[in-house]
Amino acid sequence: MSVRLHTLSNGVRVLCDPMPGLQTIALSVVAGRGARYEDVARSGWSHLLEHMVFKGAGDRSAREIAEVIEAEGGQLNAATAYERTSFHVRALKGGLPLAMDVIADLILRPTLTEADLVREKSVVGQEIAEAADTPDDLVFELAQAAAFTGQPLGRSILGTVDSIAPANPQTLGAWRAELYAPDRLIVSVSGAVDEDELFALSERAFGAERGEGAPQSGANTFTGGRAPTTRALEQAHLVVLLPAPGAMDDDYFALRVFAEALGGGMSSRLFQEAREKRGLAYSIDAYAEAYSDTGVLGIYAGCQAKDAAELARVTAGEIAALGARIEDAELARCKAQLKAHLFMAAERPLARAEQSAGQTLMFGEPFSPEHLAASIDAVAAADIARVAERIVAPRRVAGAVLGPKGAMGAPEVFERSLFA
Q1: Edge-to-edge strand ranges of the sheet holding 225-230
Q2: Distance between CA 411 and CA 301 in Å, rounded?
Q3: Residues 241-250: pLDDT tens digits?
Q4: CA dist 165 → 82, 121, 241, 362 (Å)
Q5: What is d(CA 209, CA 223) in angstroms, rounded to the nearest whole number?
Q6: What is the CATH number of domain 4-206?
Q7: pLDDT tens for residues 107-166?
Q8: Which helix (H) or strand (E) element contains residue 86?
Q9: Do domains 4-206 and 225-418 have the same CATH topology?
Q10: Helical ranges in 53-190 per DSSP H
Q11: Per residue in 153-204, pLDDT tens?
Q12: Strands 13-18, 398-403: pairing kind
């Protein structure tokens, strides 16, 4: 059965995706705003708010929120990203009314007390410190900041201790009204769900809300730059980012295939050349990160400091070589891998619910796995060459390296080799 879309009078969109035979449901309520909507003064507030709503909402305390969900076999969680904030519950069949009630309270009726806020700022401060102490987290933050310098996409989703410090219950409550406004709210359910029940519950939970939220800041531009950071580590961590098409671009699926061929699995070019053949890295992979209006092609590698420069040179060479030619068998293998990931995700209710919500936010409707598979199959060798040209043509790289001093020149070597 295809996903059914229903729009409430206030603009909240509801997606129903029955999966016959299942004994579980997954509810995902997604607000189409996140850290990208923050100004500098409120950097990290979306993530802080996501933490705070779990401290109490409606007539339940933090403990009662957890206990009431888990007493029915459910699991509750949330996540903040640059362009969305999502809340979800996985539960047994019949658990949708409770799940909807709890998430509606979290989004619409959080308690937000000063005492809880003081404690949670401390918790988030520890999370910020932990990220700074984790090399393979920090190196991504450094690369992202270099890629979008001085822009929302270049700021950490966590914010800083200083940027979250001014938040109080009143100002954070006002930000909640903007961030979770109904004009970009999606209620998505997959699994053992009845359509009539879902639409009635959604109307009761969210139908009375009104208003429009914060507008997104203007387009973010890939600036590029280098962020070498010396640390007393055993291994060097290297991330390079290149400008790439966004999720709504016609070349999005070609970008995904390009990233898969470059470093998506054990048969990929980087794994085979850099790891298996040359032994330059224990861990190396490539990925595509797509936002609504822009994107990045990223490569991460962990290596010995003495190998970092040579690894950077080899990586640049593989990008150029892939743009110049991709064999038919390689192209078919990459498509098969992407479609396998797609259809495996389609077997999990939560993945289906979240994917449908994301597609509806971006495109106004959800797409079937078959539709997406056809888009992957349509990618040709000429599309791969075109994407490679689009990635390289701006001649911009964001490179971050974290580790021993001997690895610090790797981003420069990559840039010089790629644009030679």
Answers
A1: 225-230, 398-403, 236-244, 295-303, 283-290
A2: 12
A3: 999 999 999 9
A4: 20, 7, 31, 32
A5: 39
A6: 3.30.830.10
A7: 999 999 999 999 999 999 999 999 999 999 999 999 999 999 999 999 999 999 999 999
A8: strand 85-92
A9: yes
A10: 62-70, 96-108, 114-133, 135-147, 161-164, 169-179
A11: 999 999 999 999 999 999 999 999 999 999 999 999 999 999 999 999 999 9
A12: unpaired
**Tokens read off for 335:** 């498509």
The pTM assigned to this predicted structure is: 0.95
The phi-psi region of residue 31 (left if phi > 0; otherwise alpha if psi is between -120 and 50; otherwise beta) is: beta
- Report the catalytic residues: 50
- Distances in whole angstroms, Cα of residue 67 to Cα of each of 64, 70, 113: 5, 5, 21
CATH number of 225-418: 3.30.830.10
Contacts of 98 (CB under 8 A, 6+ apart): 68, 69, 72, 74, 91
What is the distance between the alpha carbons of residues 160 and 186, in angstroms, rounded to a whole number? 29
Residue ranges per structural domain of the chain: 4-206, 225-418
